[in-house]
């Protein structure tokens, strides 16, 4: 048999245009994965909740873009936003009921496409009243063990230490000039974060984010799932701040990395409506400087924050976690239809 005949005897079978990018076997694994998560929280008497996907308010975070939805409400055109996370509404429930809650839901972030990104994805989010950040980390560890089916050891790695190990410069004390020079030495050119209208803190954080995403993140969580702790204060978002052992101000939050992929983000939640309003207004000012639409502030959340008990909360990218648990290489393998085929 000639080589040509050998090739023709094994034709490539193309998938029909309507076909899912996820196999039936993976769909069955996904269903079991979600069932296991629900069993985990049911056994701990954490209440499953459901909150609206649409909100009159949007996420003010400068680099998270909400998907706008034009609706008619009481015969008048209105702009609502698909939530980027169920956080705001869940905190309103938490302030009302003061019991542990969790939710599994679709969330939406505009213009996010790639092997680890999709405009629509699935998030697991939960809140524990009177839990410290360490206690929510322990519960996350126990969830991972339930999903992997074996014991899991998580590494704890300070942001400062990870940055110095992989970038070679102290992230909280280095000058703007030094951060830019290191980025250029690493071949990260074509970026300009030195807008004089921005605060020095915002400019510093832009360089830190660039260096962290390119030089640090890819190295994290390959041996053990890794918690990056004690982030710079500019990344606090809705988290409290504190002082680290060296006297530097840090955000009370952590992120989980597995195989170089960010999986989860947790906060020791800030329960201060005025402080949150100040942060949201600063976000909108920054959005205006970047010619990004400003977002309506969630007044309900601000009111609820003043009644929020001490608590910690965490958001987990369900699709990404399923990827690492099953060994998949892209989101397309663990979701039915990516945004480009939806």
Task: Note the main attributes of this structure.
342 residues; alpha+beta; BirA Bifunctional Protein, domain 2; 9-stranded mixed sheet; 3-stranded antiparallel sheet; 10 helices; 12 strands; 35% helix; 22% strand; disordered N terminus
Offer a concise description of the structure.
With 342 residues, the chain is an alpha+beta fold. The protein has helices at 3-8, 24-43, 87-97, 133-148, 159-166, 176-185, 200-216, 273-289, 299-305, 318-326, and strands at residues 47-48, 54-55, 67-73, 76-82, 101-108, 120-129, 155-158, 226-231, 241-243, 249-258, 261-268, 311-317.
Description:
The protein is α+β, with helices and mostly antiparallel strands. The chain has a domain at 19-151 and 269-341: Bira Bifunctional Protein, Domain 2 (BirA Bifunctional Protein, domain 2, 2-Layer Sandwich), CATH 3.30.930. It is 35% helix and 22% strand. The chain has ten helices and twelve strands. The strands form two sheets. Strands 1, 5, 6, 7, 8, 9, 10, 11 and 12 form a nine-stranded mixed β-sheet that branches. Strand 3 (67-73) and strand 4 form a beta hairpin. Helix 6 runs parallel beside helix 7. The longest helix is centred in the N-terminal third of the chain and has 20 residues, at 24-43. It starts with a helix and ends in a 16-residue tail after the last helix. Mean pLDDT is 93; it is low at 1-9.
């Amino acid at each position: 048999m000639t080589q040509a005949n050998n090739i023709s005897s094994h034709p490539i079978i193309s998938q029909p245009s309507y076909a899912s990018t996820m196999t039936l076997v993976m769909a069955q694994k996904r269903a079991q994965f979600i069932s296991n998560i629900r069993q985990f929280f049911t056994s701990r008497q954490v209440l499953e909740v459901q909150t609206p996907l649409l909100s009159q308010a949007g996420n003010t975070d400068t680099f998270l873009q909400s998907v706008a939805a034009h609706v008619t409400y009481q015969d008048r055109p209105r702009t609502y936003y698909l939530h980027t996370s169920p956080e705001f509404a869940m905190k309103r429930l938490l302030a009302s009921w003061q019991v542990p809650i969790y939710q599994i839901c679709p969330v939406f972030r505009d213009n996010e496409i790639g092997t680890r990104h999709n405009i629509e994805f699935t998030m697991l989010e939960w809140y524990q009243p009177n839990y410290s950040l360490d206690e929510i980390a322990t519960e996350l560890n126990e969830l991972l063990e339930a999903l992997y089916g074996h014991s899991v050891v998580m590494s704890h790695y300070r942001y400062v230490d990870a940055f110095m190990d992989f970038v070679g410069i102290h992230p909280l004390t280095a000058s703007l000039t030094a951060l830019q020079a290191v980025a250029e030495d690493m071949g990260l050119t074509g970026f300009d974060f030195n807008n004089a209208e921005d605060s020095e803190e915002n400019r510093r954080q832009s360089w830190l984010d660039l260096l962290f995403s390119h030089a640090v993140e890819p190295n994290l969580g390959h041996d053990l799932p890794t918690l990056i702790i004690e982030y710079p204060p500019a990344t606090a978002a809705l988290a409290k701040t504190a002082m680290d052992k060296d006297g530097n101000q840090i955000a009370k939050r952590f992120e989980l990395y597995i195989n170089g992929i960010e999986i989860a983000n947790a906060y020791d939640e800030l329960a201060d409506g005025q402080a949150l309003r100040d942060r949201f207004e600063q976000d909108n000012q920054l959005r205006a400087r970047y010619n990004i639409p400003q977002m309506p502030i969630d007044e309900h959340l601000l009111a609820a924050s003043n009644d929020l008990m001490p608590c910690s909360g965490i958001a987990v990218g369900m699709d990404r976690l399923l990827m690492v648990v099953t060994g998949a290489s892209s989101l397309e393998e663990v979701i039915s239809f990516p945004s480009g085929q939806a």
